[in-house]
Amino acid sequence: MATVGGNICLSLPAGPMISLAAALDGTATIWATDGPRRQVPVTDFVTGERANVLRPGELLRSVFLPARALRATAACRQVSLSPVGRSAVLLIGTRAPAGAGGDRPVVLTLTAAVPRPVQVRFQGLPRLNEAVDSVDSSALTAAGYLDDVHGGARWRRAMTGRAVAEVITELARG
Fold first, then answer.
1. Do residues 89 and 30 share a domain?
2. CB-based burial of residue 32 (10 Å sphere; 0-12 exposed, 13-18 middle, 19+ buried)?
3. Which tens digits make up the pLDDT trace of 84-114?
């Protein structure tokens, strides 16, 4: 639990390494004791609260982060019910660096508010309403918002919308 891999394998909605690795288009390499290695995008690795794609006898060997993701501009917003509380909403936005040719793709990755990572991709910088609606629709379709002691579903949905607007505004400046 105290390692990057342990955090990802624990598969908690607010796992910070899940958020980071998913937002940076990480790919997990999984080793099996009796079979071939396989690679899974981190966004697909976590399938729900404390649930993932690991089969009995498999282990997470590594997480690869592509160089292009590390060169991107990033913006992050985290919301919790208390100043040092567990994340209830964690949104990371990335935008391809200038000079990447054509439109600079934008990727928004939502965790903590939903049981599994939700990722929305845009060809360029989206309008605020488009971004908020797309993330909300994807969150509802993929898994729905969590409703627990760390925050109600309606509140998480509202805070997600606010986080999306702030991240898009920051990426537009950067």
1. no
2. middle
3. 889 999 999 999 987 755 679 999 999 999 9
154 burial via Cβ count (<10 Å: 0-12, 13-18, 19+): exposed
Number of domains observed in the structure of the chain = 2
**35 Cβ neighbours under 8 A, 6+ residues apart:** none
Structure tokens at 65: 């982060």
Q: Answer yes or no: do 59 and 100 share one domain.
A: no
Structure tokens at 22: 């998913």
Closest CA relative to residue 50, chosen from 116, 149, 111:
116
The torsion of the CA quartet 127, 130, 136, 137, rounded to 10 degrees, works out to -160
CB atoms within 10 A of CB 145: 23
Q: How far is CA 154 from CA 19, 112, 113, 150, in A?
A: 21, 14, 10, 12
Whole-structure pTM over 0.85, yes or no?
yes
β partners of residue 121: 107
Q: 166 and 83 in one domain? A: yes
Q: Whole-angstrom Cα distance, residue 37 to residue 171?
A: 37
Q: Name the nearest CA neighbour of 146 among 18, 24, 12, 22.
A: 12
Residues 6 or more apart whose CB falls under 8 angstroms from that of 158 comprise none
